[in-house]
Design brief:
Layout lengths: L7 H6 L13 H14 L7 E7 L5 E7 L2 E3 L2 E7 L3 H8 L2 E8 L4 E11 L2 H10 L2 H9 L9 H14 L11 E15 L7 E8 L2 E7 L2
Antiparallel strand pairs: 1-2, 1-5, 3-4, 4-7, 5-6, 6-7, 7-8, 8-9
Length: 214
């Protein structure tokens, strides 16, 4: 994951204004500046983001997931491919992400297409998870109707015994996605509801920067 410290120029800007003339030319650099600022400010769950997907017919759904990485390709997260979001991404591989950090009065909106990460990338992340979380991936058939909490606990005990003294393998139905952005918007709260909004729109191999009306 990209990690850069805030420059003195951005420290002076602080959280009170956002200028289309002073943001980074590349939205990933600007995202990193704000993301690091959220971590430095110790905002609760800075990695949490709303993921919005839609079915083939356009019916939307949204939930909170965790950002697990970002680089010049895009933003990554992991889930069960057979979950509601997984099925919707198969039908309609377009999605949106939203970060909201109330403490900083900032939000970031990201829209784009989604593709699966490689099996190697998914395996590398899966092996970094706590052992019980890996077992839980086998125990839960995400989004399916569950008979009871007891049945879920039974499944967990079953797989914990099955993988006793053995590596927990990566299920075929679980892995990562990469959202490749076509548009990223940075929003900074201002007084009188006259908020600052700066949009990056992908145009071929470059980004067009614009200020939007609040």
């Amino acid at each position: 994951m990209i990690r850069k410290r805030l420059s003195s120029r951005h420290r002076k800007i602080g959280v009170k204004s956002l200028s289309e003339h002073r943001v980074s030319a590349n939205p990933f650099d600007q995202f990193n500046l704000w993301f690091q600022a959220a971590i430095d400010a110790k905002v609760p769950q800075p990695y949490a983001m709303t993921l919005a997907t839609a079915s083939r017919s356009g019916r939307p759904s949204a939930r909170i997931v965790l950002l697990k990485g970002f680089d010049p390709r895009g933003f990554s997260f992991y889930t069960n491919y057979e979950s509601v979001k997984g099925k919707e991404l198969t039908e309609n591989p377009n999605a949106a992400l939203l970060f909201y950090w109330p403490k900083l009065e900032r939000q970031i909106r990201i829209e784009g297409s989604v593709e699966k990460l490689t099996r190697e990338e998914s395996l590398r992340y899966f092996q970094s998870r706590p052992r019980k979380s890996r077992i839980g991936t086998w125990a839960s058939h995400q989004s399916e109707v569950l008979q009871s909490r007891e049945s879920l606990d039974h499944q967990f005990r079953k797989y914990r015994q099955l993988f006793h003294n053995a590596d927990v393998p990566l299920p075929e139905y679980w892995g990562g996605y990469l959202l490749i952005p076509s548009r990223i918007e940075f929003w900074q709260s201002r007084s009188n509801r006259l908020h600052d909004r700066v949009s990056y729109l992908r145009e071929d191999m470059s980004w067009k920067i614009s200020r939007l009306s609040p």
